[in-house]
Amino acid sequence: MTTMAIRLQRSEEVAHGTTAFHFDKPAGFSFRPGQAIDLILPDPAVAGTDGARHAFSIVSAPHEDELVVATRMRDSAFKQALARLPIGGQAEIDGPFGSLTLHNKQERAAVFIAGGIGITPFMSILRHATRNALPQRLVLLYSNRRPEDSAFLTELQRLEGDNRNFRLVATMTRLEESRLPWMGRTGPIDEALLKRIAAELPAPVYYVAGPPAMVGALRNTLERAGVDGDDIRSEEFYGY
Ligand SMILES: Cc1cc2nc3c(=O)[nH]c(=O)nc-3n(C[C@H](O)[C@H](O)[C@H](O)COP(=O)(O)OP(=O)(O)OC[C@H]3O[C@@H](n4cnc5c(N)ncnc54)[C@H](O)[C@@H]3O)c2cc1C
Question: Which fold would CATH assign to domain 110-236?
Answer without folding.
Answer: Rossmann fold (3.40.50)
